[in-house]
Amino acid sequence: MNMRNIKYFFSEAYKSLYRNRVLSLATIANVAICILILGAAVLLTVNASSIISNLESDVEIVAFIDKELSAKETDLLQSKIEKIDGVKTIVFVSKEQGLKNLQEKFGGTEYDLGSTLGENPLRDSFEIQAVDPHQVPDIAKNIEILNGVYKVNYGKGVIDKLFQVTKWVRVVGVAMIFLLAFGAVFLISTTIRLAIFSRRKEVYLMKLIGASDWFVRMPFFLEGIFLGLTGAIIAVLLLALGYSSLTGQAHTILFLPIVTDVRFLLHIYAGLLAAGMLLGVIATYFSLNKYLDV
Amino acid sequence: MLIQFYNVSKIYPNGVKALDDISLKIDRGEFIFLMGASGAGKSSFVKLLFREELPSRGQIFMNSRSIVRMKRSEIPKMRRNIGVVFQDFKLLENKTVAENVAFAMEVVGAPLRSIQKRVPQVIKQVGLEGYEHTFPGQLSGGEQQRVGIARALANEPLMLIADEPTGNLDMDTSLEIMELLYDINRKGTTVIMATHAQQLVKSAHKRVVMLEKGKIVSDSQVQFEEQQI
User: Fold this and answer.
1) Last residue of a domain, one of A154, A173, A195
2) Are B2 and B159 contacting, i.e. CB atoms less than 8 angstroms apart?
3) For chain A, which has fewer Cβ within 10 Å, the N-terminal or C-terminal residue?
4) With contacts defined as CB-CB under 8 Å, which chain A residues touch B79?
């Protein structure tokens, strides 16, 4: 391949894009929308995963202990719980501390919960975190049967529902991404097919004159890559702008653990650009139809 | 021997038998008329020659090499030995005369220097000097066919295949195009011309292969009274 050929491929691709400029623009817009939704779905999935894993790690077991347990027995119980498989951390919360936490959570400072309740109705408790949130139900069961444990709380239904939601967000996200990618491929390949169709005489001549297959195909591949990449660039620009303005607000207003790691985001954006290019290549490959097969 | 057909049949998927057990040899430097009514098999014969179609049965050799068993990657190289001229010219309307001719050399990756040298040569050979920068739409039918011939000659093929090259032209213009083809043949290029214009053939004193319903019904040098061309 020499420089003149490369120049020829680019000029042919450019001419074809320009000749079908309305269609080219429409395709780029369509690809941009596809990649935009694709990117939004990716960001949504990533953030949902991040939020959920955040919630998951928040899931903890609270074991209330019998009121008559001595300090020594409490220590013994703590060491027993520590030995249970899958337990990451265990923290002792005295009933005084528990009341204080409750006060902070609900009352603030202007309202004294302790004086309203009179005697502290709470029990001493352990707050236990699991290595893997999925183990929480099993660990809770093991703690429940220990002597000196009054009651175990871990928000049974909540965890199960949470895992279900996580699963569905991931499944739907992936399905959406595949659907949209399929749509983008279809659009680009339609455009390329039209480009080939509008140049079918030229292509036919090239083949009869003795141009090699790759020589005939190269301009169309360039055209497909251009359509995919340009659409992706527009989408990524819009996405980056929208996301950065959104994350600023989400952090301050919603307190959500939004993904803001710049390097991670750059990876996603680069991936989207590569996806756009890949879509162009795949779509062109699928549209190299009978007009190229002389 | 340039071209050899051995028991070649062509049956299309719709059941039409276009060629039926054809055997034929064509020497280097020959000028052959391929005659017959519409549907006699002329177009199929021509398409088999540059391997746009494959025979259903039989073998075709070019320069002693089978073009039937040829690998896909070898086809382009084989086709560079052949120049094709069409009834409807098939010129690229958005390119000038010179660009149309250069196109044939560009797509086979010819170096720029040889394109710049060769294009004016063939344009001169077909008698279109001064029209280099004209677009096909501004030319007459005969002139357009000259561009088609110049393009077919650009890569200096061994063989020129002309499929009804005068089919869209009036008699006087057709005779001019014939003169050009004879001239090309005199310079050593084998010319195979499919036509049903009997008048052109009669005056030519060349080998005539007559096709009828896919079979060769005669293959001879037809003798006719001389005509002033």
Assistant:
1) A154
2) yes
3) N
4) 207-210
Please give the residue range of the domain that contains residue B132: 3-221
The size of the A-B interface in CB pairs under 8 A is 49
Question: Does B228 fall in a domain?
Answer: no
In the sheet with A87-93, reading across from the earlier edge strand, the strands are A87-93, A125-130, A60-65, A149-153
Among A126, A154, A182, give the residue marking a domain's end: A154
pLDDT 10s digits, A179-225: 877 877 887 888 888 888 878 888 888 888 988 888 888 888 998 89
Give B208's strand partners.
B33, B220
Spell out which residues of chain B touch residue A18, defining contact as CB-CB under 8 Å: none
Total number of domains in chain B: 1
Question: What pLDDT does A4 receive?
Answer: 72
**In chain B, what residues touch A213 (CB-CB under 8 Å)?**
72-73, 76
Q: DSSP character for B80?
A: T
B226 lies in a domain? no
The answer to whether B3 and B62 have CB atoms below 8 angstroms apart is: yes
Restricting to B residues 160-219, those with a Cβ less than 8 Å away from any Cβ of A are none
Verify that A276 and A168 share a domain, yes or no: yes
* Of residues A223, A231, A212, the one with CA closest to residue A276: A231
Whole-prediction pTM: 0.68
CATH of the domain at A95: 3.30.70.3040
Q: Tell me the CATH number at B82.
A: 3.40.50.300
Helices and strands in chain B, H and E counts: 7, 10
Ramachandran assignment for B103, one of left (phi > 0), alpha (psi -120 to 50 degrees), beta (any other) = alpha
Distance CA A237, CA A273 (A): 10
**In terms of domains, do A196 and A115 share one?**
no
- Same domain for A192 and A275, yes or no, is yes
Helices (H), B50-170: 75-79, 97-106, 112-125, 141-153
ipTM score of the complex?
Answer: 0.82
